[in-house]
């Protein structure tokens, strides 16, 4: 009898866990919707086209995040490691991190250009990989935190967007020369000149520092934390196929077996 009571208790606990999970997903969705509404409310007629475009992109990313939350409503959180490898994948993660930082700064009313400490960058990289860091884990990226933080800080200071960041990493890591293309370098120098409010020499030095930081990036990133794993139910299907021999083949087989039995009986009679 005690076993039945334990089963009922476990079933009740599982039901309560599902209800809490559904409530949390609803709250996340409402929070994202509120941020999108607030983002639209802060627009004013005097804003420039560039500012409006930035806010539009931020709103679009938040809407995508809301859709992702709905799709992962039945996912189960699990604590573990997420690993990405290869220069292309590292470039993608760095670009996604910069894009998310720019969206967050837009929502908080902060300037888009400005550096960040290594801990903030490590936590942002983990989130860009789909990993939620533990509250007590200040640097949820295993190894190479300094090199990742150095490049992330340089990219944020120059005001690079996600596409530019990924392009810099690919050009430096995937070319034999390990340098930026002349066109990319010129664009970044002009951007650094206006963003950093410095002279041309200072802009050149800033881009050179960004290139060196990109060259030192690792070729893999491992983040630890909670990952949402889809709750998948597998229903195996077994198909049984029976092949029956043709009628002529069956008759031939029976005749061969009868002939063999007759020959064996004849041999036994001759021996007697």
Descriptive labels:
two-stranded antiparallel ribbon, 272 residues, 8% strand, single chain, mainly alpha, disordered N terminus
Task: Explain what the structure shows.
The chain has a two-stranded antiparallel ribbon with strand order 1-2. It folds into two domains: 74 residues; 155 residues, no CATH class. The protein is elongated. Helices cover 65% and strands 8% of the residues. By secondary structure, it is mainly α. It is built from nine helices and two strands.
How is this structure best summarized?
The chain has 272 residues and is mainly alpha-helical. It has 2 domains: 1-74; 76-230, no CATH class.
């Amino acid at each position: 009898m005690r076993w039945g009571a334990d089963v009922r208790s476990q079933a009740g606990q599982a039901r309560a866990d599902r209800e809490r999970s559904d409530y949390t997903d609803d709250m996340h969705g409402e929070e994202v919707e509120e941020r999108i509404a607030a983002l639209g409310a802060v627009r004013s007629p005097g804003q420039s086209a560039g500012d409006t475009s930035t806010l539009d992109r931020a709103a679009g990313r938040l809407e995508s995040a809301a859709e992702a939350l709905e799709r992962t409503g039945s996912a189960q959180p699990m604590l573990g490691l997420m690993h990405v490898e290869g220069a292309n994948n590292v470039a993608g993660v760095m670009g996604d991190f910069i894009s998310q930082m720019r969206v967050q700064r837009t929502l908080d009313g902060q300037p888009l250009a400005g550096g960040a400490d290594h801990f903030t960058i490590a936590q942002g990289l983990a989130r860009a990989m789909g990993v939620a860091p533990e509250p007590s884990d200040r640097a949820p990226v295993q190894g190479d935190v300094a090199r990742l933080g150095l490049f992330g800080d340089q990219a944020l200071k120059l005001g690079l967007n996600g596409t530019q960041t990924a392009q810099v990493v690919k050009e430096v890591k995937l070319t034999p020369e390990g340098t930026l293309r002349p066109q990319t370098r010129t664009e970044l120098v002009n951007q650094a000149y206006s963003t950093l409010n410095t002279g041309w020499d200072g802009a050149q030095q800033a881009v050179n520092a960004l290139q060196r930081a990109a060259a030192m990036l690792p070729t893999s990133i491992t983040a630890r934390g909670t990952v949402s794993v889809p709750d998948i139910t597998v229903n195996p299907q077994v198909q049984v196929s029976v092949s029956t021999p043709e009628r002529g083949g069956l008759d031939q087989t029976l005749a061969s077996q009868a002939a063999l039995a007759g020959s064996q009986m004849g041999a036994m009679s001759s021996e007697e």
